[in-house]
Amino acid sequence: MSISSEITRIKNNIANCYDAVENKGGNLPLIKNSSNLADAIDSIPTPSAGIYWEGLYVTGLMVNPPQNSNFTFKSICYGNGLFVAIDSDYNAGNSRVFTSPDGINWTERSSNVINNYYWLSVCYGNGLFVAVGAQRGTGGGIIKNTNNIMTSPDGINWIQRTGVSGVLCSVGYGNGRFVAYGENDTNSIIISSTNGTSWTLVKQTEWKMQTMSNIRNNAIAYGNGKYAVVTYLTNGSQSINMYSSNNGTAWTAHYNNNTPRMDIICYGDGKFVGAFGNFIYYSYDAIIWEEASVPVSGLGATSICYGNGLFVIVRNSGTYGDRVLISSDGINWTRRTCVERSWTAVCYGNDRFVSVGTRINSSTAEYHQAMYSA
Fold first, then answer.
1. d(CA 311, CA 305)
2. Does pLDDT of 228 surpass 90?
3. Angle, nearest 10°, between helix axes 3-23 and 34-42?
4. Is the pLDDT assigned to residue 15 strictly greater than 90?
5. pLDDT surpassing 70 at residue 17
6. Which domains does the chain have, with CATH numbers?
7. Residues 13-35, mean pLDDT to the nearest whole number
8. CB 127 within 8 A of CB 80
9. pTM reported for the whole predicted model
10. CB-count exposure of residue 179 (10 Å: 0-12, 13-18, 19+)
């Protein structure tokens, strides 16, 4: 190797090192040379949850799901020292549950209660995991009856509970009360429970949702003394875009003339934050909504959560560099680099954010995958 080529190689290595420092948020000196490089590296801030993301296969799911299956992760939550994720196949009408203490090492949990139902959403509160969905129909699909809730104290052993007849699409917890949202044969419904085992119909909505796909896994939030359920119920030119309640039993409809359409919502930093389409919105009272700054086009947000002073949105579309969005205030958002997958759910726990989704390989075979922030 000639001296000139060796000098070129060293210069390129230094340039690459400075690129890495910049990507990690370090301070760049005016003169970029080897003597300044150590100081630049030392200036990289200590990583905090939500900033850097690492991807990994979910243990036990490094092979294809059953042929012609449509298993996709629907929901994830954290409680009692454990992450719990649910994936389901609508065509087959069955589900699987995965648990992890750290978001890295995962174990599949199996039982008749888990596998023979179509579970859509899971949350944790008051020492209990609660999942909602519907019973599997003959030959697949779902049946709208009261067999649509299961609970677990540890995320491993699950018990069937009787809910209110219908299919339940989303569940949340706040202020000592579980709230679930779904539909029966004629209307959309909101049900609630103070213990997760006995449920009461508290609202039968004015109109019915057009399709269950309008309801994401985290359509319910609680904060500042108020429950909020985002929905999309239409009647001609009018639509009901949200219901709110101060006690979880009496609910008020919010129409499209003053409330934007959203299909995911969470609460943190003194405000509600929701998203739909190409838009992110925020509100301090769930009544007056403002539009936030969105750094990407075609948002495609699938899930949102708050933790450790940070809002996180994951997406099922976009490029390698923007399938995660983060914000410290819910108003100004920044793209973060992550593994390029179809991310469908995210939560915070154990000092990290964890998201689950699906990878599509070149032969269209699906692989489940998880990623965590570090």
1. 6
2. yes
3. 20
4. no
5. no
6. 3-42 (no CATH), 53-373 (2.120.10.80)
7. 63
8. yes
9. 0.82
10. buried
